[in-house]
């Protein structure tokens, strides 16, 4: 494995089933059914292979991972291998009994999502009326002795409420809050026209973030995930292709990042057919964009190529149809107009209008018409 | 230095996990969304923060294990930083 990096994290997407229908969900537009999912034994094998590969942290995600009744078995396997486990949850379905059994199995931490600061805004974005369940989940997580981490995806519809959203997380006892500006893949790309904020709106939110970060320094850690469309250079996505982490999807296919399934021109192997070590170190898909040799210009001759690694392969594919091109976010990309045009539209019209939005937003649902042929 | 600090009984925060990584052969502190690479002395100090030993006892144990003297200030500095980062509670 000379020259091949060792992954630190495994994102275990154990299911696509979810009680929420978020309009920016990063899951692929083509969602898997329960019958497509890996068995418990498949997951146990994948977890053992991940530990051998150097993985230290396992993030159980989905969909809603609590849907899987065997989550405790998987968490216990991780604990036995010395792996740190994290539950990434909507909070819906988390009872006191479930939290206790997960902690007994060895769960180390939990990350709870919210979509807004009220029941109404949650319903608009996630088509769920159970905001009350989220507050209960926050209490259950803390009572179980787990550190409460929270996250919220930010966009045109909720950015103006950032102060109130942070208040909610403080009052629920979060010790860390990820403010994740929407990244435009999957469902978010479908809804981009309604989600992309204006520059003015974003600047105001940045001011709120900076003020609250300073205020809350001792109490809650605030993290700001950059809105990459507004950056001059692309994000160093995942620290470079297949460098630090891997994702196993519900059906067992393995990806260097959670949204790489969108790259339909590449073949990704499954833990059903291959050892994780081979997939990580040798499979053509993982080798395709490792390092800098694959880069075309303007990346190849750019001084930033070791800083941002050409940006995000999934974004390059989503916007240009070619995963090997420079991320169009980059101002040096010949495809940059694809991003600039979207920004121009976001800054030209009116602000968010909940009534119009409700009619036009495409909610994440397993629809047959969304499946690719 | 406050005398009472010597009788504190620091312990690793429940969210933190200390482990040796066999694959990379390094000492690590695992936290939510974070992996901290520790040097040998940092790992040794945290390994003794079990909620039973006082700071004084942690220092004595380290001086014995490392055949060293005068480690008190280094340990206090490390623990203050570790507390600030939420790795250790007292």
From TrEMBL, chain A:
Pathway, per record: Cofactor biosynthesis; pyrroloquinoline quinone biosynthesis
Alphabetically ordered keywords of this record: 4Fe-4S, Iron, Iron-sulfur, Metal-binding, Oxidoreductase, PQQ biosynthesis, S-adenosyl-L-methionine
Xref: InterPro entries: 4Fe4S-binding_SPASM_dom, Aldolase_TIM, Elp3/MiaA/NifB-like_rSAM, PQQ_synth_PqqE_bac, PqqE-like, Radical_SAM_PqqE_MftC-like, rSAM, rSAM_sf
Cofactor: [4Fe-4S] cluster
Keyword Cell membrane among record annotations: no
Cofactor binding, note field: Binds 1 [4Fe-4S] cluster. The cluster is coordinated with 3 cysteines and an exchangeable S-adenosyl-L-methionine.
This protein's record includes keyword Ubl conjugation: no
Enzyme Commission numbers on file: 1.21.98.4
Reaction it catalyzes: [PQQ precursor protein] + S-adenosyl-L-methionine = E-Y cross-linked-[PQQ precursor protein] + 5'-deoxyadenosine + L-methionine + H(+)
Binding-site residues for [4Fe-4S] cluster, renumbered to this chain: 18, 22, 25
GO biological process: pyrroloquinoline quinone biosynthetic process
Family indicated by similarity: Belongs to the radical SAM superfamily. PqqE family.
Primary role: Catalyzes the cross-linking of a glutamate residue and a tyrosine residue in the PqqA protein as part of the biosynthesis of pyrroloquinoline quinone (PQQ).
SUBUNIT field: Interacts with PqqD. The interaction is necessary for activity of PqqE.
Record's protein name: PqqA peptide cyclase
Organism: Prauserella sediminis
UniProt lineage: Bacteria, Bacillati, Actinomycetota, Actinomycetes, Pseudonocardiales
Gene: pqqE
UniProtKB/TrEMBL annotation, chain B:
The keyword Endoplasmic reticulum belongs to this UniProt entry's keyword annotation: no
One Gene Ontology biological process: pyrroloquinoline quinone biosynthetic process
Record pathway: Cofactor biosynthesis; pyrroloquinoline quinone biosynthesis
Gene3D superfamilies linked to this entry: Coenzyme PQQ synthesis protein D (PqqD)
GO terms assigned for molecular function: quinone binding
Keywords: PQQ biosynthesis
Subunit record text: Monomer. Interacts with PqqE.
Name of the protein: Pyrroloquinoline quinone biosynthesis protein D
